[in-house]
Amino acid sequence: MGLFSRFRRRSPHDHERDGETGFFPLYESQRGFSADDDFAPSATPRFSPDYNKWDQRLSSLDSEVERERRRRLPWWRPSKYRGRRKRWWAVRVFVAAILLFFAIVAWLAITAPLSKSLEPIAAPQITLLASDGTPIARSGAMVDAPVEVGRLPPHVVEAFLAIEDRRFYSHWGVDPRGIARAIWTGRGGGSTITQQLAKFTFLTPEQTLTRKAREALIAFWLETWLTKDEILERYLSNAYFGDNQYGLRAASMHYFYRKPENLLPQQAAMLAGLLQAPSRYNPAKHYDRAKRRMDLVVGAMVAEGYLTEAEAAALPAPRLDVRTRDDLPTGTYFADWALPIAREGVEASYSRQAFTTTLDAGLQGLAGRVTSRAALGGAQVALVAMRPTGEVVAMVGGKDYASSPFNRATQAKRQPGSTFKLFVYLAALEAGWEPEDTIANTPIEKGSYRPKNSRDNYSPTITLEDALATSSNVAAVRLFDEVGSENVIRTARSLGVTSPLPEGDPSLALGTSSMTLLELTSAYAGVAANSFPVRAYAFPKAEESWWDWILTPEDNISSRAHSDLEQMLRAVINRGTGRAATLPVANYGKTGTSQNNRDALFVGYAGDLVVGVWVGNDDNSPLDGVTGGGLPARIWKDFMRGALSLPEPRPSASPDPEGPIQPFDVEDGATIPLDDNGSSISFDDDGITISTEIEGMPLDFRLDDNGLAVESAEPDR
């Protein structure tokens, strides 16, 4: 209270007691007036208070209070910076930009892979070889070893500098004068060699301001960490020169059959002119354009003092020396599948590489001939041949790769039809069923899903072997329900099927889920080898170590179930829907036809080959009378006969009437092939059955005690 008592108005008694004349204390003074003072109340006042000074002090105090209040505000509050002067903002923005720039450069120095500028910008050329060393395909860019600036003639380097970056050795990655010249003249992009190296090494070719800013930043970074010669070497070793040629060494060898160290001035000038538009100035296709562009480069060299007028005028037009190379396809169905696998294990380098594949050149040629002569009409075809280990030896993905490179063996997912029944019957055998066990073969009249047998061929019961051989749909669905969808799916998964398989869907038994032909054939290979899962591969595998053998899980079928399954698959060919695939050796397989005849398949094995064949339309439209037991089975048989070097069937010679009579004993139930179209004859105790196919319709001619009868054999579904 002592502070405020000084401003309290005192009473006269207080004045007398204090011995002072009464007054009101102000800021200027804390003492009373005396009679001697000039401005005492009793005297004439000659001084007035300095109110302006008071205002200034009060304003200063208010400013200090406001600054203190702002200082205590959090940094993210806008009011903390309100009222700042433009100069204050300009200084801080400039400093922040400088700090941000150096921070980004430092971040690039730590995180950006500088070694990437040493790698080729295009995948190097890879040549695929068949198992016998025969080249089958070549893909990738033509690249060669990097060049060294110190070993190049001066006129080679000068040609590129004159047309691409005249001030290369004097700027810091970005050339403001070059940019200004490009804007003023309207010619050129103003990009330096360093910027171009940054663009095709680290960035995409998009034309945006953001990309240009990043390009300039990376160019500055490259200039910081590399010497000028190193930048130029990496640029010349990666630039595109047209005709699939990347790098100066590959281009000089391609166009002039000369090493870059031996290039003549006119040759170097022509190569330097290609960089602006390699396809447009390609001398192998547009020599006149390339020559005009070369003259422009020579003029730039004269302007920079690299050549005199007389030397430039004396330069002749360079003569091309494009050497012919072995013409190999850049892609085939097999190569398109194998190349990505090959590149996975290839480190980026400038060297061309060759890989030996599992493809058998002879079997591949046979597959091409067999599929090309098949009566496909407008339909497409696919064929995969592999060893039981998964080694793919032949692949056809369509009728004509040139017109359609889409691989229907590895890319198309189609319904497998009744070939999927393999998993249903195998699951049943592993659950304890036997081929002689019976199951109802009557129409299914309950439930939401009611499949039908082809041509309404039913019977009270049917054995599992006959059900698979004749491809009974109702029997397969009933067996699927008995075994359980989870067991069928587990069996398919164990054999290597990875495609989606809906659990609890009875139509799965008839192959309504989609998968690739390669995947399906690999599953059958697991049955053939009785070791699964089998993974298809295109390159020879390294010998497996004992440790890998322990860690690699493999499964197999019990010997009883495997024997029963092969007995049933053999019955499909001997007396079932696969009679058209009959061979004079033991063979096993299954036909498949999807709903409405959209897909027709035959997958089987004989000897050491597992082969899958698919026929269908790309638009998934129905086939005209083609079933799995028809055209696909005949293609399979045609390929297998040539692949296994089986003799063509020939009519036996007439017996010598004077010679001894030879017995002609035929085992009951045995089937004898009659021709290449699947016709066969079988004998039993009651008579003879001749099975054939007429205009796509399978027929059985039965001769017994009741006479001759003609029956329509049930086609596979």
Molecular structure report:
The chain is α+β, with helices and mostly antiparallel strands. 38% of the residues lie in helices and 13% in strands. The chain contains 23 helices and 17 strands. The strands form five sheets. Strands 7-6-12-11-10 form a five-stranded antiparallel beta sheet, with helices on both faces. A five-stranded antiparallel beta sheet has the order 13-14-15-16-17, with no helix packed on it. Strands 2-1-5 form a three-stranded mixed beta sheet, covered by helices on one side. Strand 16 and strand 17 form a beta hairpin. Helix 5 runs parallel beside helix 11, helix 7 crosses helix 8 and helix 16 crosses helix 19. The protein is flat and about 140 Å long. The N and C termini lie far apart (110 Å). The relative contact order is 0.07.
